Amino acid sequence: MPHARRRRLGSGPLTPTKGPLSGVRVLDLSRVLAGPWATQTLADLGAEVIKIERPGAGDDTRMWGPPFTTKADGSKGDAAYFLCANRGKKSVELDIATPEGAEIVRELSKSCDVVVENFKTGGLKKYGLDHAALSAVNRRLVYCSITGFGQNGPDAHRAGYDYMIQAMGGLMSVTGQPDGSPGAEPMKVGVAVVDLFTGLYASNAIMAALLHARATGQGQHIDIALFDVQAAMLANQAANFFVGGKAPTRMGNAHPNLAPYQPFPCTDGMVVIAVGNDGQFRALAQALGAAGLGADPRFTTNALRIEHRAVLTAELSALTAGLTMKSLMTALEGAGVPCGPVNTIDQVFDEPQARHRGLEVTQSRADLSAPVRTVASPIRMSATPVVYDLPPPALGEHTDEVLKRLGKA
């Protein structure tokens, strides 16, 4: 059939999920990160997620490497990037640009509770797969559109990518070293935070809309824009502007509203000290053997510490620079002062707390030479825990299974 490419890995029958969203079926037309992050969250919570992918190519991120996985026959597999956002899904190869492929999506939507897509605004209308078309055949359908700028407005037609939205949405203006410092320039965050936040907002909205649909029998269209999400993410920095009337600027690792609240040097690395109140500051001074700092009239309140931030930072840095990270953290933890090491990513997963909490998920996939390792969901639920029943799928792995439901296989 020209619309679908089928493959079976022989991994045995699939067991139903038991999570809190068990029984919810999601049709995932999204790719890259924001949409897949939302649908992975739904999958982790027990929803059945059917991921529609382009025949022969699949989600763009399957090729966003290196690094790549290795197949059992030694050939190159999926990029690591794909693995991070597609756990728990069933992959169906389907060309929605053909009449046959589009019709299969319409048929699937009749038995789904949710559709998630991140095509350009209006991009699915030409295939008859837009909200109006699919809600006409399933009035309970929750249809979530994720775009750069939303479904309306002067920029609605524009494509949106995380990096450009970090810039346009103000995040880069408050990230990086301050002007006049070495390396000063607007800086993006080290992960695609706009995409990730967008995925989380989308999954929250979807679950709220599902509750509404179950109560009323009526679905709805969810319009999530990366630009809107980035504006929301400005949080206290936006509030600082609204109240103070002045646009915040880059401050490096310093906090605009708290001091001391930044990394400090040690002999073997850096430790972040996060003082949230005046009592913690006095405890910090005591723990560092400099109780006088806690009573210094320049530092007795948070507002004063911010006013005299440069002097305070220099004084504290001189006290921490001769200590090891372990000795500093031991002293501060004993005094009740929040602190933590500046870890590399490998060190994160070596943390005793990370091991205890099970922050790494290991799953097997028949076509790969090694297990798939992903980061666990941070959601912990006592009665309906997160489920990890499917690894990130091979391209087209579940095409036969899904099409059989429609009598198409």
Concise structural overview:
By secondary structure, this protein is α/β, with parallel strands linked by helices. The chain is 35% helix and 16% strand. The strands form four sheets. Strands 1-6-3-2-7-8-9 form a seven-stranded mixed beta sheet, sandwiched between helices. A three-stranded antiparallel beta sheet has the order 10-11-12.
Task: Describe the protein in words.
By secondary structure, this protein is of the alpha/beta class. It has two domains: 4-232 and 356-405, Crotonobetainyl-coa:carnitine coa-transferase, domain 1 (Rossmann fold, 3-Layer(aba) Sandwich), CATH 3.40.50; 276-337, formyl-coa transferase, domain 3 (2-Layer Sandwich). Helix content is 35%, strand content 16%. It is built from 16 helices and 14 strands. The protein has helices spanning 34-44, 80-83, 99-110, 131-137, 162-168, 193-216, 226-233, 235-244, 278-287, 291-295, 302-307, 309-320, 325-334, 345-348, 352-357, 399-405, and strands spanning 4-5, 25-28, 48-53, 68-70, 76-79, 89-94, 114-117, 142-147, 220-225, 261-266, 269-274, 339-341, 360-363, 372-375. The strands form four sheets. A seven-stranded mixed beta sheet has the order 1-6-3-2-7-8-9, with helices on both faces. The protein is elongated and about 80 Å long.
